[in-house]
Design goal:
Layout: E1 12-14, E2 19-25, E3 28-33, H1 35-41, E4 44-49, E5 55-56, E6 61-67, E7 71-75, E8 80-85, H2 88-91, H3 94-98, E9 107-111, H4 114-120, E10 122-123, H5 124-129
Antiparallel strand pairs: 1-2, 1-10, 2-3, 3-9, 4-6, 5-8, 6-7, 8-9
Length: about 130
């Protein structure tokens, strides 16, 4: 398991939303929250991803998470289609807290404009240098 404030170089980040994005194939991004984001919301007790095939507008929800102190939407900063969802955290939401960069990923999204996504988000190296 990685530390709370690690930022792997193989991902893009949205620091404002505490989210990470790893491009799995051209235009398809695996999405999760960072360790810092998971720590901020607290121990998760519920996770409900958007259904596969669902369209998401920029700024709209790809998942709902609930902790003892917060219930809210995980919002995507770009538009796309959910092409896969991680079912493991539905039954074991603690996976998001324990392994946010691995088993705790949330959804896989095919971006409408992949080039714009890459420019919108910071690379892992830039995130580390900016701290």
């Amino acid at each position: 398991m990685m530390g709370t404030f690690d930022f792997p170089d193989d991902r893009f980040y949205d620091a404002t939303r505490h989210m990470w994005f790893r491009e799995e194939e051209p235009g398809c991004f695996r999405v999760g929250i960072t360790g810092q984001g998971a720590k901020t919301v607290g121990e998760l007790v519920a996770f409900m991803p958007k259904r596969i095939g669902g369209r998401v507008a920029a700024g709209r929800s790809i998942a709902t998470v609930e902790s003892g102190k917060w219930v809210g939407a995980v919002r995507l900063p770009f538009a796309g289609e959910v092409i896969d969802a991680n079912e493991a955290p539905i039954d074991r939401p603690f996976l998001i807290n324990e392994d946010p960069f691995g088993a705790g990923w949330m959804v896989l999204v095919r971006a409408d404009e992949p080039d714009a996504v890459r420019e919108l988000l910071a690379s892992g190296r830039a995130s580390c240098e900016g701290r």
